[in-house]
Amino acid sequence: MYDRVIQLAGSFAAGALASGALLAFAAGSPPSNVVAPRSMAAVPLPAVAGASRLGLLRNEAASGDELSNWQLSNALFDRYDASGEADDLYEALIWMERRRDVSGNAQLIARVVDRYCGQRVVRWHWFCVEGE
């Protein structure tokens, strides 16, 4: 039993020594997988630019940025006005509700009440139900 423990310890030490030697030699060598950075497209496509802008705003709003949340809600409302896609209206409402500073939502709430309360997506939202 004692011989087996010594054998395992020796194997571990030999492996550690070999790994250390490889790391020491690799530290001085130039990296072999360096790739030149890709150049950006000269002019992004409008649809891709809009989608990436919304994606960036979504990421920043999800991290708690109040201004990005407000800009995202406005952009989604504008997109709904242009396309009539109910998903944009619903997502804008979800982002509005996530804002911590409800007093900053006054302009957005007024926009919802003025324009969208007749829409099926918003009809029973607490912004639109009378007496709430």
TrEMBL record:
Signal sequence, renumbered to the chain: 1-26
Keywords tagged on the record: Signal
Protein's UniProt name: Uncharacterized protein
Classification of source organism: Bacteria, Pseudomonadati, Pseudomonadota, Betaproteobacteria, Burkholderiales
